[in-house]
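Researcher: Structure for this, please.
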Amino acid sequence: MRLVTLLLFSATLVGAQSTDPLKLEKEIELPDVQGRIDHMSMDVKGQRLFVSALGNNTLEVIDLKAGKRTNTISGLGEPQGALYVASNDRLYIASSKDGTVKIFEGTSLKLLKTVDYGDDADNLRYDAARQRVYVGYGSGGLGELDIEGKKIGEIKLDSHPESFQLEKNSPRIYVNLPKSRKIAVLNRETGTVLTTWGTGMSLNNYAMALDEANHRLFVVTRLPARLLAIDTGSGKIVQTLSAVGDCDDVFYDQSRKRIYASGGEGAISVFEQQDADHYKEITRLATVKGARTNFFSAELGRLYLAVRQQGSTPAMIQVFEVGQ
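Model: Predicted structure, token format:
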């Protein structure tokens, strides 16, 4: 009887572990990388992670199969955004200090072109259908490039854009404008601002993710730390939930109906989508203070958290397996 009880207890533990939304798999150290780490991108086929080491003025390239850094692009001016485009094997890096988007050949990492935006080039997004790259920059602009780096146009905004998301089935772009305390809705075909939505009493809206199928936009604010679920048809906030503090990245996991928000407070908030109007935080996983950027790969079923150097402990990427 005792053996049966132990076996049942063991089975219960295994079942509980398999359903953990995030489980730390390994840590990939980045020796000599100092300061703040910003946004990331991925070459899924090649299993390479590109890490914007803003405080180090470098872009770090990690071989995920080998579990180690293989290359460093140095001499950058506070890189904030990274974007890898597989169709043309190009890596785009946006830098704050010099306001440039630099385009590199994705395999050799040879610099091909530098596009100047003057100031504070930040987040990057790719429109695969139209083969366009978008960059937020300066005191209020969203720039549009073709994949070779030719400037196509720009949309003027009234303050610096932070995270933004593109719909695949419509020309809409949703843009966080924290200094203006709102979200701008753009039409990328006409280059116009369609409307703006306020965020109520929730301010500092930096991170954003999109569930296009259910017409829901997820915005995480810092003051106070909240997750806002917004109806993209009306701009109405359908639910507000407490979230991790100092959030800088949030991703929507469509297959598992989850939202992952990482914050410099030192945690990852994991939310479960019960339906389009109802969400709940299912766990708040303790991480490391200051680790506020992450990258989620649906293809690999992994979440990558950037951890800056802490005293004698080197900077690293923590790799989390995403449970079912």
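Researcher: Any notable elements?
Model: The longest strand covers residues 22-30. The chain has a mean pLDDT of 94.
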